[in-house]
Write a structure and sequence with these properties.
Strand order of the largest sheet: 1-2
Number of helices: 3
Number of strands: 2
Order of helices and strands: HEHEH
Radius of gyration: 12 Å
Structural class: alpha+beta
Shape: globular
Distance between the termini: 32 Å
Helix content: 40-55%
Largest sheet: 2 strands, parallel
């Protein structure tokens, strides 16, 4: 509470213990601007809610190979 997803991402990126973990944005906002902003900030992918479990599994597999 009180932090945006981008704030959390920045905090994760600045900590050596978590800086190499790929981050995926999960949001109900599906506008191109929000998606592009998250990607520009360092997210490796973007998942729009609601989503299917198969989408999540495929995305995790894609970024953990």
């Amino acid at each position: 509470p009180g932090m945006s997803g981008i704030d959390v991402l920045r905090r994760l990126q600045s900590d050596p213990a978590t800086s190499d973990i790929p981050c995926v944005a999960v949001s109900a906002f599906a506008m191109d601007r929000e998606i592009q902003d998250a990607m520009n900030q360092g997210c490796v992918d973007y998942l729009t809610k609601p989503f299917e479990r198969a989408q999540l599994i495929e995305m995790i597999a894609r970024h953990t190979r």
